[in-house]
Amino acid sequence: MPWSLLRSECGKCYLPQRFILVMLITAAIIVSYGQRVNFSMVVAEMAVKCEKTAPSPCAVELNGTTLRSRANDENKQQWSQQDQAVLLASFFVGYVLMHLPGGYISDKFGARIIFTLSICISSFCTILFPLIVDYCGFVCVVIFRAIIGIAQASVFPNVTTLMGRWIPKTERATMGGIAFAANSWGIVIGNLVTGVFHQALGWRSVFYIWGALGITWYFFALIWLYSDPDSCPVITEKEYAFLNENIPKKEELKLDVKGILLDPAVWALVAGQFGHAYLIFFLATNMPKYFSEVLNVNMKQNMWVNSMPYILQWISSVISGQLGDYNIKKRGWDVNFTRKFYTTVASVLPSICLLIMPYLECEVMGVIILLCLSLFTMGPFYCGLKVNVIDLTKNFSGFVMAIVNGLGAVAGIMSPSIVGWLAPDESELVVLDFSSN
């Protein structure tokens, strides 16, 4: 039976190259998000616990002693809540700065090289991060976190360029729902892997494992990831003909930055992305600390509590994507209506769920249920607004995504900074965690 590993075929069985691309994109986003959330999961354990001006309102006491155990402060960092907020925000500073160059390069020269290098550099920096923490000062740690953000800045612009050149419009909601929502699995697996390795081998092992996973992905991507069907040497003639027929060819046009910036559709996408990004970054960076420091959920329970909502988010995104493509192809739904409908659902319903949370106070199960509902209803966002960028332009989708995602990422800078400013005492996180959403 004839078979080829590079062409992903065995006899009559064949895995299309665009499906392999989506698998590699999904894995890359999982790795990149794992390298982000690992720090937010362990930063509270890396630092010496500050004396609280008031006990956590949800603390449970036994014989006058809080039930949550405190690790030995030996060899820990003297980081206050404000310092931790700066560290969390520093990633997003670098992340915002390199969006536009990354998007422009991927549109102009193809996404393969810059995409693979982004994950490779981020992974090497993640492996080196414990050494920076141990032997360098606070400023160096902040700078290094910003460098990791710079390395990851081009990921989503590159993904958008790749999707635009490989995925036909009738498959975008499904493929986009799978790929763009992979950040959910990044947070899920990030929480689980980080929790397991932190408990077993300490916080340093968390960075080593995520760095190693990124390097492993890099070598697979060098074999199977290509910028477009024309540059892919292993694509079959059948798939190549199908993609040529259903995906318009990129035109050699001059980038009109002014025209893009004056387009109201672009700013509508920016507004939607900013609101979504604030919620998702806020939850990803602060919910682990909230459950740990305020609700007194231990690390083992915390990693499961923080994972369940994101699994539901991914499931919701995949189902929404399939329904969206079905309605467009079989029921004649307008593409613009479908994207707007999904974006509206994914913006309004999660906000309502989060606004109810302040009234639950220390009801852990109620908080978890509302968190699950919030992220489940957020799932349609990825097959709505995210893929809409590709609908707008086939030539500059990476650059437009750089604007949309880059400005949206400003929310990632704001979120931990606001938390550190309004809640300098970690027990006060309960006030901000709910009222800010």
Please sum up the structure shown:
The chain is an all-alpha fold and 437 residues long. Helix content is 71%, strand content 2%.
Textual characterization of the structure:
This protein is an all-alpha fold and 437 residues long. 71% of the residues lie in helices and 2% in strands. The strands form two sheets. The protein has a three-stranded antiparallel sheet with strand order 1-2-3, with no helix packed on it. A two-stranded antiparallel ribbon has the order 4-5. α4 (112-135) packs antiparallel against α6. Mean pLDDT is 78; it is low at 60-74 and 427-437.
Overall pLDDT confidence: 78
Helical segment tally?
20
Shape: globular
Beta fraction of the residues? Answer: under 5%
Distance between the termini: 58 Å
Spans where pLDDT lies below 50 across 5 or more residues? 60-74, 427-437
Number of strands: 5
Structural class: mainly alpha
Q: Report on the biggest sheet.
A: 3 strands, antiparallel
Range of helix content: over 70%
Cα radius of gyration in angstroms: 22 Å
Order of helices and strands: EEEHEEHHHHHHHHHHHHHHHHHHH
Biggest sheet: strands side by side, in what order?
1-2-3
